[in-house]
Write a structure and sequence with these properties.
The chain is an alpha/beta fold. Helix content is about 35%, strand content about 15%. It contains nine helices and ten strands. Strands 2-3-4-5-6-7-8-9 form an eight-stranded parallel β-sheet, with helices on both faces. It has a two-stranded parallel ribbon with strand order 1-10. The chain is globular and about 55 Å long.
Length: about 300
């Protein structure tokens, strides 16, 4: 049985990890990202299928301490305003249901930047300098981490576990934390792990790693769940088996695996036959869920009607 990497993990965090481990290969937990207070995506799924996802993803970008409002596009400001208050929404939902929480953090660069400065094209913030003691980058990094830690503490106080997925998609160079390579992102992740478990004692977090490259893996002692984000160019029925095999080959076979973000939901009939051990999937928000630009209502119903999928 897999145990949390944080030996001080709360009872409910331990139970959640056990649940994920027991689910993988026997069923798949349905998941949906949502980034507005009304949670339109959840409403859409319920309207089409009569059911709701077991797992919900929420976004912390609006809580970034260093947002440059003066040099932000309309699209950037809209996204910020939509995401305001999502932590309160997440807390309320978690208290009222037996659902599962997962958090993403498109972290606006701790120093400088403009517009959506989590993208490297909008900031000259050098993540590699965080690894050097005494730099302004390191100081700003820890400042931001402390701010976010305080916002997460209400969940700790209520012993609500969170699938915490920082520094996601570090196998790409589009975010500042991955722009200097997956090895740097890996070290940032370790710094956060140590700071959050030893200083802030956020023992309700389960640590989700989100990079499929061997050189970026932090090691089994830092990771509870391995995961990957997959956005196919066009729809094709898949259980994402090849992606699973690549992921465990480059990271570890010892951890629960998840589809942390997908554009197209996996084909539940294929999963039912292959039993590829994904514990959960999470479809991204907006048009990836609502409407049929990506996922057809037929496929959505197929997923939520099948006994292999776990719903709220």
């Amino acid at each position: 049985m897999q145990k949390p990497v944080n030996k001080n993990a709360t009872e409910n965090a331990r139970k959640l990890l056990t649940y994920l481990e027991e689910t993988a290969g026997r069923a798949i937990i349905t998941g949906q990202h949502t980034q507005t207070i009304p949670m339109e995506e959840i409403g859409w799924i319920e309207e089409q299928t009569g059911r709701r996802p077991k797992l919900r993803g929420f976004e912390l970008l609006a809580y970034s301490p260093n947002i440059n409002y003066e040099d932000a596009s309309e699209a950037c400001l809209t996204e910020i305003y939509e995401n305001r208050g999502t932590l309160e929404t997440a807390l309320q939902w978690a208290e009222e249901s037996d659902g599962i929480l997962t958090f993403s953090f498109h972290w606006y660069s701790p120093i400088g930047g403009r517009d959506k400065s989590f993208y490297i094209q909008n900031t000259d913030f050098d993540a590699s300098r965080i690894l050097t003691e005494g730099t302004p980058e390191r100081e700003a990094f820890y400042h931001d981490m402390d701010v976010i830690a305080e916002l997460l503490k209400p969940f700790l106080e209520k012993d609500i576990p969170i699938l915490w997925r920082p520094f996601h998609e570090s196998d790409g160079a589009w975010f500042w934390w991955g722009a200097k390579g997956p090895e740097v992102a890996c070290e940032l992740y370790k710094l956060m792990y140590e700071h959050y478990t030893k200083v802030h004692r956020l023992d309700n977090l389960l640590w989700v790693w989100n990079c499929r490259l061997r050189e970026g893996y932090p090691g089994d002692e830092y990771v509870d769940v391995i995961s990957v984000d997959i956005y196919l160019e066009k729809y094709t029925p898949t259980d994402y088996k090849d992606d699973y095999e690549k992921l465990i080959k480059n990271t570890t076979k010892n951890k629960v695996a998840a589809l942390a973000e997908v554009g197209y939901i996996p084909d539940v009939k294929m999963l039912e036959k292959s039993r590829v051990p994904w514990a959960y999937y999470m479809t991204w928000s907006k048009e990836f869920c609502i409407g049929e630009q990506y996922n057809s209502v037929e496929k959505l119903k197929e997923m939520y009607d099948n006994n292999y999928s776990i719903k709220e």
